[in-house]
Amino acid sequence: MSENEIVARNEQPGELVHQLPVAAPAVDIYENDAEILLHADMPGVLKDDISVNIDNGKMLLSGTRRLQPGGSAGWRELTDVEFRRTFAVPQSIDVNKVHAELKDGVLRLHLPKSESAKPRRIEIKAG
Amino acid sequence: MITRLQDINQILGAMDLFRSQMNSMFNNFDRSYSGGRDWSIAETYPRTNLSDMGDNLELIAEVPGVFKEDLQVKIQGNYLEISGTRKPDNPEGYTVHRTERATASFSRSFTLPYEVDAGKVEATLKDGLLTMSLPKSEAAKPRQISIQ
C-alpha cells in the first residue's frame, strides 16, 4: 500500500453537508369546525423556499431565508437560517386540500378537515 | 485491503455526519425563533443587521406581519429610531390552540456610526423585512485623497 493512498482520501457523499442554522418559527394555531389554521412567522423567506410535507401524521414545515450579502458588517443579528418545525397532524385532515399563503413574512397554512371529520348535527326523529 | 480502507473511511464519514447532526440537535432542540438567543428573556424588539455599503448604510430589520402603516422611522443626525405595532391577526370564529407570535408595540433606537442624510433615506417593506438605505451625509462619505 503506497503512502499516497492514505493521504489522498476522496470526499465521501456523507460529508458534503452545508449546515444552515435551524430555528423553530413562532406559530399561532387556530381551529374551527372546518379547518385548522396555522400562522408562522418566516421573515425574509421567499415563497419558493418554503416546503410543507405531510406524511404519516407528521407535518414538516421548512422555509429557508437567504439574505443578500453586501457591504461590511456594522452589526449582525439576523443570518441566513432555516425555519423548521415538525407538527403532529390529526388523521382527520384532508391532505389534498391543504393550502397556504405567504404575506409580509407570515405563512398562513390552512388544513381543512375531511368531510367525515366535520361535526354533524344528528336529527332525532320522534318514534 | 484498499477496498476495506474505503469502507472504513465511509463509516468514519457517516459518523462525522452523525456527530454534527447530534450537536445541532442539542443546540436547536425546539428552540423557538422568537424566544431569543439561548434561554434569555424573549426579545420584544426587531432584530437588525447594519451594513456599510460605502456611500450609504443599509439597515435590515425583521418585522414579520407588521403593516407599512404601523411602522414609524425617525432619523436625526446619527440617531435612528424604529417603532411600530404588530396588530393581532387572529381570525374570527376560531378557537385558539397556541399563540407564540407576540402582538405588541416595539421600539428600538440606534446610534449609527455616521451621520445620515435624512432627506434621502429610502425604506422598503417586503416579505417581513424592512430594508432602509441611509445615505451618509457629505462629510461622512469616503473620499479619495490624492497624494501630492
Describe the structure in your own words:
With 127 residues, chain A is mainly beta. Chain A contains 1 helix and 9 strands. Chain B has one helix at residues 2-28; strands at residues 48-52, 56-62, 71-76, 79-85, 95-99, 105-111, 122-126, 129-135. A 4-stranded antiparallel beta sheet of chain B has the order 1-2-8-7, with no helix packed on it. Chain B has a 3-stranded antiparallel beta sheet with strand order 3-4-6, with no helix packed on it. Chain B is flat, with a radius of gyration of 23 Å. Residues 34-41 of chain B have low confidence and may be disordered. Strand 2 of chain A pairs antiparallel with strand 5 of chain B.
How would you briefly describe this protein structure?
The complex is a heterodimer of chains A (127) and B (148). Chain A contains one helix and nine strands. Chain A has one helix at 3-7; strands at residues 22-23, 27-31, 35-41, 50-55, 58-65, 72-76, 81-88, 99-103, 106-112.
Strand neighbour order, sheet with most strands of chain B: 1-2-8-7
Tell me the major beta sheet of chain A.
4 strands, mixed
| Distance separating the two termini of chain A | 93 Å
Tally of DSSP β-strands of chain B: 8
Class by SSE composition of chain A? mainly beta
Name the strands of the widest sheet of chain A in spatial order. 1-7-5-4
Helical fraction of chain A equals under 10%
Secondary-structure element series of chain A: HEEEEEEEEE
User: Overall mean pLDDT score of chain A?
Assistant: 85
Number of strands of chain A: 9
Overall pLDDT of chain B, averaged? 82
Oligomer: heterodimer
Counting DSSP H or I runs of 4 or more residues, the number of helices of chain A is: 1
Gross morphology of chain A is elongated
Strand content of chain B: 25-35%
Characterize the overall form of chain B: flat
Rg of chain B, please?
Answer: 23 Å
Name the poorly predicted regions of chain B. Answer: 34-41
Count of DSSP-assigned helices of chain B: 1
Low-confidence stretches of chain A: none
Proportion in β-strands of chain A: 35-45%
